[in-house]
Amino acid sequence: MDGKSSRTTTPLLPDAAAKHGRERPSEPWKGELVKSIVYAGLDAIITSFSLISSISAGRLSSVDVLVLGFANLVADGISMGFGDYVSSNTERDVAVKERLVTEWEVTNRRRCQEQALLDRYRDLGMNIDDATTVVNIFAKYEDIMVDEKMVQNGILSPDDGEKPWKKGLITFGAFLVFGSAPILAFIILIPFTCNDTHKFIGACILSALALAALGAAKAKIAGQKYALSVSGTLFNGALAGFAAYVIGWVLRDVAGLEN
């Protein structure tokens, strides 16, 4: 012995991603409230901008835009918020009932449930020995087995996710805040111009900026490319606004509302 330590250090294995020259994909945003804000905001901007486009094509005044715009915004916001609450509450009720059924199945038909899990794991690629070992472990813990069966049926636990009333309130608030963007141009430009066309152009610009911001947020949530998400969101808003403008212009002529 030369007096030096005879210990040898085992070299660290390279990370699988680094070994293949691939970077770790970016994680999407998590949380149901963030998704409610973004998707309610997108719907609000497009709905509000489409309404303004149809009103502007009909050559109605800025007062008409503000009155009809805010009235429609509040009514749609209440409808969307309540709809989100009802939908989330219904999903929660279904999950509660499904868990009761699953608990009964696990308690009274344990062998059938164990066999179903065994078949599932084998379908996923486990060999029979490993699948049997996993099922036997789960069989010792009834609550875990119930949770696994719930996941297998594609149903979340009733305790997962945000409270229905909170999701409904967030959806309502997001709809009001973001849906106000197209209408705000008519208020901001009051000291600077009386031309309704200029105000409509301002509404187009504010709507485009808001849509771009939420398109970027949508890309962050879904892990998409920012350019693709923003361009798609802008195209959606432009298409909806153009369709509303054309319909308003046609109906103005049909109704004989020309100046």
UniProtKB/TrEMBL annotation:
It is a multi-pass membrane protein. It is found in: Vacuole membrane. GO terms for biological process: intracellular manganese ion homeostasis. Its main location: membrane. Residues 17-27 have a biased composition (Basic and acidic residues). One of its GO terms (molecular function) is iron ion transmembrane transporter activity. Keywords: Ion transport, Iron, Iron transport, Membrane, Transmembrane, Transmembrane helix, Transport, Vacuole. Residues 1-27 are annotated as: Disordered. GO terms for cellular component: membrane; vacuolar membrane. The chain crosses the membrane at residues 169-192, 198-217, 226-251. It catalyses: Fe(2+)(in) = Fe(2+)(out). Residues 1-11 have a biased composition (Polar residues). InterPro entries: Ccc1_fam. It holds the Pfam family VIT1. Belongs to the CCC1 family. Vacuolar Fe(2+) uptake transporter. This is Vacuolar iron transporter.
